[in-house]
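Structure first, sequence second, as always.
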């Protein structure tokens, strides 16, 4: 028996509440509503359909915001770190003595075989990286390489002794660490050349310099005589690999 719209009974009608009389429905949820819908029914139905998309959009917005916040934070941290390093280097350079070619300085400390700290009368100390040479690392305990690194430090001390050192600056006069780059002379003795000639240092050929051909010839002679590190086959093989790498970088 079919229901009567005016009677409010039958399978085609559902009581709708106080704000309307009835809602007609059928088995297909996509069919249009017939009759009067209760207040908020259509809005609730629309919300239920759009709710998953709405939540997904919110989540994506939050993920995007979090990502760019992280990027901004990393950029700020990097800028802070770099500015700190630059500030430290600037402060160090301000504290250090300003050396000029021809200055006489005194050896204060040997940092390693190719780096020393010197003092200039009436000024603070300055860190000097010897131009054109590289000695083996000396800070690795009983490693064979460290043995020859420490030998280079001792050789440097012997070459200098108590004599004043004369400075010949490189161009440019400082490296990226703020150290002064220079050739140091004790009397007429080029300290870097002395270390090369005794087999305690290698010619650092990445950046060409005026005396490099003479340094290279001294290195060939020391190697032929098996002097210093060149007398140890294992260490000399490592030294050859370093030399080849520097030649590749400098080419």
């Amino acid at each position: 028996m079919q229901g009567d719209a005016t009677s409010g009974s039958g399978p085609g009608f559902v009581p709708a509440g106080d704000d309307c009389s009835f809602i007609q429905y059928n088995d297909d949820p996509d069919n249009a509503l017939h009759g009067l819908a209760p207040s908020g029914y259509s809005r609730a139905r629309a919300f239920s359909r759009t709710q998953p998309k709405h939540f997904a959009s919110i989540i994506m917005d939050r993920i995007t915001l979090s990502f760019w916040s992280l990027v901004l934070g990393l950029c700020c941290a990097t800028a802070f770190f770099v500015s700190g390093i630059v500030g430290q280097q600037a402060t160090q350079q301000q504290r250090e003595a300003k050396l000029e070619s021809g200055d006489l300085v005194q050896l204060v400390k040997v940092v390693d075989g190719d780096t020393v700290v010197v003092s200039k009368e009436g000024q603070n100390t300055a860190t000097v990286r010897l131009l054109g040479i590289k000695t083996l690392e000396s800070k690795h305990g009983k490693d064979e390489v460290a043995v020859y690194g420490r030998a280079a430090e001792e050789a440097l001390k012997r070459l200098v002794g108590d004599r004043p050192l004369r400075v010949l600056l490189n161009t440019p006069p400082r490296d990226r660490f703020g150290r002064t780059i220079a050739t140091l002379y004790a009397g007429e003795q080029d300290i870097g050349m002395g270390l090369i000639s005794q087999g305690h240092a290698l010619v650092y050929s990445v950046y060409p310099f005026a005396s490099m051909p003479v340094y290279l010839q001294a290195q060939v002679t020391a190697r032929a005589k098996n002097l210093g590190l060149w007398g140890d086959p294992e260490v000399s093989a490592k030294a050859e690999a370093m030399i080849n790498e520097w030649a590749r970088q400098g080419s």
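Margin note: Residues 104-250 form a domain with the OB fold (Dihydrolipoamide Acetyltransferase, E2P) fold (CATH 2.40.50.90).
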